[in-house]
């Protein structure tokens, strides 16, 4: 009787002639846990997530995923997606050996590096493909609120994804301040309280709304712009000056202090705290242009309107009809 033997079959179906692998581009980004390298194949497809892979221990993206991603039948799938293949630190081809005593990132920290990669690429959604340790890392990442480092979550609250991916000097400065804050544990407590906040339950015309004058400012590229617009819709329009600031992200006081100062002056003037002669002088003496600086809620029926005409470069404040020139 013939003996049954286990035979291991490696399925081989390489790319067909004419099917060439797409060009790859390798990048490195700095993260709070050191730099990470990843290789991007294909081009981003509108409204589609990226496929992001994470390899197992002892492998890198190529040794782990090349046979799968270059399998002929796989092409009709992956051609519809941009692919981001992450190499765990020090696993990329040609990586230098880490110095003695180097503290390798924990799997949680490796998961926390993923948002930095996505921010760099400006990708917001992914389909994760992980093997072994890579599957653990991607699962950690998918449990986002629990995995993303507190500092990255806070940065995502403070700044828009666009600002974070541009990674300007300001972002680098604030990432550095928050990541290395000696009181990060205290910041986390404040963050937790913020996340457990109660709804303010404002209602326009209802009992619960602010009765005092309010100046509400939001950058037009702020991460929570919609929430601020909604808040404005619930406030008393006769008491509220709403300013949506152009070319501004999550922190207008950092990125547009001049425009904000100007707006604040008019708000104070509307309350009678600054003489209009002083305002005119201050406004005229300023050098920065406010033209195209702000788009304003155009509710003309309000008694307090902080507004700016982008055509004429004029600002009006307080009682309607009081208009000031702004040097542009
Ligand atoms: C890809 O096309 O995504 C790919 C190509 C080579 C190795 C790994 C992935």
Automatic annotation (TrEMBL):
InterPro entries: AB_hydrolase_fold, NDRG. It comes from the Eukaryota. Residues 1-27, 291-328 are annotated as: Disordered. Gene3D superfamilies: alpha/beta hydrolase. Residues 304-318 have a biased composition (Low complexity). Signal peptide: none annotated. Belongs to the NDRG family. This is NDRG family member 2.
